[in-house]
Amino acid sequence: MGMAVGGSKGGAMAEMNVVPLIDILLVLIIIFMVITPTVPKGLDALVPQPAPPNQKEDPALLAKTIVVQVTASGKVLINQDETTWDQLGPRIDDIFKQRAEKVAFVKGEDSVDFAEVARAIDIMRANGVDKVGLITAKVEAGQ
Q: Residue 115's domain spans which residues?
């Protein structure tokens, strides 16, 4: 605390020194900014990595991989087997009932609205798939 002497009729007048208080407040603001967790928003997406060019694809791995494809004509395919939107959920549930690793991929044609792909992702997540990966044309071509 500081003290100002003179200048007024009443004699000595006490003034509060606020500089240390401001320093403490600034340090607290910085601490809270650092501690505040940042919560990621959005969907977790996996992107399948293509095999190296010299290596052939493993048939056992291909049999384990589940790819749901949404076509421009409105059809839904599970590993090249045609299904309907109503049957997608129960079929996914049956496929992943016995599997420990619940990972699947979604592929949409270029002309398909993302809403249809998101609908497939929602159905898959609701029926036991933990992680959903996205397959794009470039990833499929190995680029």
A: 59-141
Instruction: Name the 3-class secondary structure at 59.
Output: helix
In-domain check, residue 71 = yes
Count of domains forming the chain: 2
- In degrees, to the nearest 5, what angle opens at C-alpha 23 toward C-alphas 19 and 27? 170
Any idea of the CA torsion for 74, 48, 98, 115, to the nearest 10 degrees? -30
Share the mean pLDDT of the chain. Answer: 79
> pLDDT tens digits for 77-125?
988 888 889 988 889 888 888 878 888 889 888 888 888 989 999 998 8
Residue 110's closest CA among 81, 72, 59, 84?
Answer: 72
Q: Give the per-residue pLDDT at 130.
A: 84
Same domain flag for 134 and 64: yes
